[in-house]
């Protein structure tokens, strides 16, 4: 099992622990990762709204790099997977868009053919063969009551992101992270407003206070269910919850903070890795007491 690893922009700069945890986890689970000179995805906001064809051409360049190596592309970010899946879908479907983009790519000596698929680390880990390996390699359970936050771009719009898994009403409710975390002994717990946006795009592009207000709203429901930690699969969502709680705690002194983890950090802990090895020791909202309470230090 081999993938071209697409790290995106945020993880190498802000959260190298996510990358380290992912590489270690994939190595243990027999998933080979190949590094390629990818560029920005670009994000499914901003440029896309201003000039769609330029956004499409930049995404196509990344698809070409993986395609030229004969590898499917795996991302660690909900925004990246959204962009690259949509671009791949659009270019496969539209002859006119493909011709237009390939004319642009000629200047860079690339040619998009449409021979690969784009996926997210969560979907890679959820494959039967990987789960079998995880069960075999797991050295400890993580008995923590966990809340999952999938992030909007991971599964919306469902017709584009998971067309093969739509219900009869053409809706899609993600459950894979919940199921995967239950395998490592966690207790996935439902909470109100689970699928509400984290507020990151609003905070980054318009009103940071309004973005953090969404975090506060979600935290209220999370604490009502006595959830001990959050799991995310997107660096922007992580930043919103991790930094957001620090910002909110300066304004609301009674705020009870909830540690947030990236998915592969939790998988890594279950495989026997230390908090430092998977990078949880540098999170702003500390998880040391929680982890020590279950014998992980």
How does this model look, in words?
The protein is an alpha/beta fold and 297 residues long. The chain contains 17 helices and eight strands. The protein has helices spanning 10-14, 16-28, 47-50, 52-68, 78-93, 95-105, 121-125, 128-137, 152-155, 158-161, 176-183, 200-205, 208-224, 235-251, 263-270, 275-278, 288-293; strands at residues 2-6, 32-35, 72-75, 118-120, 145-149, 187-188, 229-232, 260-262. The longest helix has 17 residues, at 52-68.
Features:
17 helices, four-stranded parallel sheet, 297 residues, 8 strands
Structure in a nutshell:
The chain is of the alpha/beta class. The protein is 52% helix and 10% strand. α4 (52-68) crosses α5, α4 (52-68) packs across α6 (95-105) and α5 crosses α6.
Q: Give the uncertain stretches in residue-range form.
A: none
**Overall geometry:** globular
Counting DSSP H or I runs of 4 or more residues, the number of helices is 17
Biggest sheet character: 4 strands, parallel
**Strand residues, percent:** 5-15%
Structural class: alpha/beta
The SSE string, one letter per element, is EHHEHHEHHEHHEHHHEHHEHEHHH
The Cα radius of gyration reads 19 Å
Average pLDDT taken over every residue: 95
- Our measurement of the CA-to-CA distance between the termini, rounded to an integer number of angstroms, reads 32 Å
Numbering strands along the chain, what is their spatial order in the largest sheet? Answer: 2-1-3-4
* Fraction of helical residues: 40-55%
Number of strands: 8
């Amino acid at each position: 099992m081999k993938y071209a690893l697409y790290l995106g922009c945020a993880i190498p700069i802000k959260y190298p622990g996510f990358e380290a945890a992912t590489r270690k986890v994939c190595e243990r689970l027999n998933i080979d990762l190949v590094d390629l000179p990818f560029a920005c995805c670009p994000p499914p906001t901003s440029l896309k709204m201003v000039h769609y064809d330029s956004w499409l051409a930049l995404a196509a360049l990344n698809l070409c790099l993986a395609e030229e190596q004969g590898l499917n592309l795996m991302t660690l970010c909900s925004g990246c997977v959204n962009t690259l899946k949509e671009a791949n879908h659009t270019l496969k479907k539209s002859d006119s868009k493909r011709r237009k983009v390939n004319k642009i790519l000629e200047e860079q000596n690339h040619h998009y053919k449409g021979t690969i698929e784009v996926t997210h680390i969560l979907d890679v880990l959820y494959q039967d063969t990987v789960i079998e390996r995880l069960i075999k390699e797991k050295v400890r359970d993580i008995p923590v009551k966990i809340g999952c936050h999938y992030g909007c771009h991971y599964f919306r719009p469902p017709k584009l992101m998971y067309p093969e898994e739509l219900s009869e009403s053409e809706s899609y409710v993600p459950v894979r992270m919940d199921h995967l975390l239950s395998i490592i002994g966690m207790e996935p717990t439902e909470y109100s407003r689970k699928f509400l946006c984290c507020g990151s795009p609003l905070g980054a592009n318009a009103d940071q206070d309004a973005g953090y207000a969404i975090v506060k709203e979600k935290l209220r429901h999370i604490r009502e269910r006595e959830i001990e930690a959050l799991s995310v699969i997107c660096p922007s969502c992580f930043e919103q919850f991790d930094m957001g709680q620090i910002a909110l705690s300066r304004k609301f002194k009674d705020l009870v903070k909830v540690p947030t983890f990236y998915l592969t950090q939790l998988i890594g802990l279950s495989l026997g890795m230390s908090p430092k090895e998977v990078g949880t020791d540098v999170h702003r909202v500390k998880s040391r007491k929680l982890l020590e309470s279950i014998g992980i230090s």
